[in-house]
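Appendix B. Raw example, untouched.
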Amino acid sequence: MDVEEYRKTRYKGIDQRIINKREQNILRKIFSSMNRKSISVLDIPCGYGRFSELFMEKSLNLTSADISFPMVLAARKYSPNCACKHYFLVGDISHLPLKEKSFDCIVTVRLFQHILRATTRFQILKELHRVSRKTVIISFYKYNLFHSIERWLRCRIKNVEKKISMLHLDGFARELNSAGFRVVDIFPVLRCFHAQNIALLRKIEP
């Protein structure tokens, strides 16, 4: 993957620009609703740092992590200048080289729709639970008939097969609860027309 090409083209289309803006607005709204400025935020997978500026406005220190070394380099290259401390980490989200309760808030956007196996999702959720102190924000694809048909048509036209995971809310809520999370709120990115939702989670302490 050419990271520079990806950065320039991934959100160039009108539909993706709309989705990107909605994601940014939802994340900003969630952070603004928190009682205090988060001391530490983990953005994983960070990609090329699409949300870095937003997180650095809302936190005292940010760690951008990704399994892809070139993506982490890009996030570092385009890191905005501000008073917030910014760290970088190459690591696998299912086996993070981090201590328990390392971050006040962990944000995971645009990952779970690519995780097709429930056992893999559970492993990732347990790891997020281990590393977070209190708050986790994740995006996931909730089953959406319109979006399902649109994806099927687009894949047929382009003659490609690209599987994603669209989850039923009740089942996914049980997965989250089993991993030790309580769903505080869910924000549709584009209600009715797009499957992506962003969920605000809190840890359930024993």
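End of appendix B.
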